[in-house]
Amino acid sequence: YPTFARTVPTETEITAALIALFKHFEWRKFSIIYERNVANEELFRSIKSTIEKQNMGLEVSDTHYVIINVSTVPHPFSEIERSNIKQIISDTYVSTRIYLTFGNVRLFRRILLEMGAQGLMESGDYALIYLDPDYNWLNTYHAMNNHFFRDTLLSVKQSWDDLNSQDRKVVNFSKFALAIIPTPVQLNAPEFIAFWRKANHYLSLFGVKQSSTTTSIKANRFACYLYDAVKLYASALTMVLNETANEQLSVGYDPISDGKRIIGHILGRVYRSIQGFDMHINSNGDAQGNYTLLSLQEIEPVLDMDNPDYYPLNYGLGISADFVHDFTGDLPLLRFKRDIQWPTGFAPRDEPICGFHGKMCKKGIFFKVHV
């Protein structure tokens, strides 16, 4: 529609961040494992389309993007029921170094466990990338206890106090795991705090009873998108009204009804989101998503068992980088805030030096590699 724009990024927007990550680490060959459902199929098609577009811009001599293998599991995926993840890893690990999964976080957890059980997460030769386009990040402890690594069917104490628990194994296996999520809402941003206080004030005027939950700041990403949409529309309409001459009004012109003119002040615009960071609406009216890269980082453990954030480990997923819009290209810029703590000191390769099955090294020829 020519007069339509949206502040909610599509789930497939995360694909651009993925390719930016792959370019940074020079990863071109990878295998995909995902759960079969409508949203994941759409994201898979987006990934295929994006790498095809990237390949078109490469020279013949350049290394092209290649999806080595695609494996799917039935929907809904359950960790309790028997799955074929173990078989998928067994069948693909010889010709794969970089694995990609998306959607169901329990599938990500199961793949980590299986890769770890088969010894793939200790050598430094393998990595697992996880895309979670809907996750609402609060902090490291909430993420570790309620989303990424812990089996929430168990109590927090069962997960962490047992030194041989599956959940501790998952954390240990995640040294070579990365996750891409929407950039967290900046709860301490002045504009967000002001909006929160004003919203709570108006809630009471509508008869909504105040409680401790309504006075403590929490993030609702979709409320932020709605706020941004209203503010963008109001700003664009104000511009149109200011541009409209009295002569136009006198002949019956209604600027409020001129959708094309209003949308013209929205398309291609960079605006400051109530979430605390800049966003961009492209020429098609689609919001370009902002994304964040997570990796295992050293953190301060929470040792108080009565604390909801109880987490006695000193490693957990933390924010390592963000992806920001690049006006000079079709992929976002990857900006690191903290180095990824690769145990080997460097990222895995997407293919062995001699290629899979040694096909790139002739017998009798030896290579010296200097690091």
Q: What does this protein look like?
A:
The protein is α/β, with parallel strands linked by helices and about 375 residues long. Helices cover about 35% and strands about 15% of the residues. It is built from twelve helices and eleven strands. It has helices at about 15-25, 40-55, 85-90, 105-115, 140-145, 155-160, 165-175, 190-205, 210-215, 220-245, 245-250, 260-265; strands at about 30-35, 65-75, 100, 125-130, 175-180, 270, 280, 285-290, 290-300, 315-325, 335. The strands form two sheets. Strands 2-1-3-4-5-9-10-11 form an eight-stranded mixed beta sheet, sandwiched between helices. Helix 4 (about 105-115) links the parallel strand 3 and strand 4. It comes from Brugia pahangi.
- Report the span from N to C terminus: 54 Å
The overall number of domains is 2
Largest beta sheet: strand ordering = 2-1-3-4-5-9-10-11
**CATH structural fold name of the largest domain:** Rossmann fold
CATH class of the largest domain: Alpha Beta
Structural class determined from secondary elements:
alpha/beta
What is the structure about, briefly put?
With 371 residues, the chain is an alpha/beta fold.
List the helices and strands and how they pair.
Blueprint: H1 14-25, E1 29-35, H2 38-56, E2 66-73, H3 85-92, E3 98-102, H4 105-117, E4 127-131, H5 140-146, H6 156-161, H7 166-173, E5 177-182, H8 190-205, H9 212-215, H10 221-243, H11 246-250, H12 259-264, E6 270-272, E7 278-281, E8 287-288, E9 291-298, E10 315-324, E11 333-336
Parallel strand pairs: 1-2, 1-3, 3-4, 4-5
Antiparallel strand pairs: 5-9, 6-7, 7-8, 9-10, 10-11
Helix pairs in contact: 4-7
